[in-house]
Design brief:
Blueprint (H helix, E strand, L loop, with lengths): L2 H16 L3 H9 L5 H14 L11 H21 L5 H28 L4 H20 L1
Helix pairs in contact: 1-2, 1-4, 1-5, 1-6, 2-3, 2-6, 4-5, 5-6
Length: about 140
């Protein structure tokens, strides 16, 4: 597996940790899948729900499992597109998702609780970062 693919698999996993549906949306868009539109719509919905008070924490075990699965599937899809065995890319995607979930949670908590930034502002910046990283990783 090439070094760029290793980095891209980890990066798309990190995106899944930040926003679980953004990673598959970007991957499907890059692969020109017929499912790209509906999944992108779901990703937009997730970005909206993330700002609501009742949204579960990304580190809640079921949410964390979904993020890890999303990262693994997206990493595997990147590897398949390059005709590379998917196991390592899937593993890196899952690890990236766990890192993205916990790292994103810690960063958001620090910026809102310790530094006093408005939660919605931090969430919007996180959305933008996830989109840019997803676009570059899935390309």
């Amino acid at each position: 597996m090439s070094a760029p693919l290793v980095l891209r698999a980890f990066a798309i996993g990190t995106v899944a940790g930040l926003r679980s549906m953004t990673a598959p949306a970007a991957t499907l868009l890059a692969n020109e899948s017929m499912w790209a539109g509906p999944v992108a719509f779901a990703a937009a919905g997730e970005a909206i729900v993330d700002k609501l008070a009742f949204a579960p924490a990304r580190t809640w075990p079921p949410a964390l499992a979904v993020r890890a699965l999303s990262g693994a599937l997206c990493g595997a899809a990147l590897a398949r597109r390059e005709r590379t065995p998917p196991l390592l890319a899937a593993t890196l995607g899952a690890i990236g998702a766990l890192g993205g979930a916990y790292g994103g949670y810690a960063a958001r908590r620090y910026l809102t609780k310790e530094r006093g930034f408005p939660d919605v502002l931090v969430a919007l910046v996180e959305d933008a970062l996830a989109i840019v990283l997803a676009r570059n990783a899935a390309a």
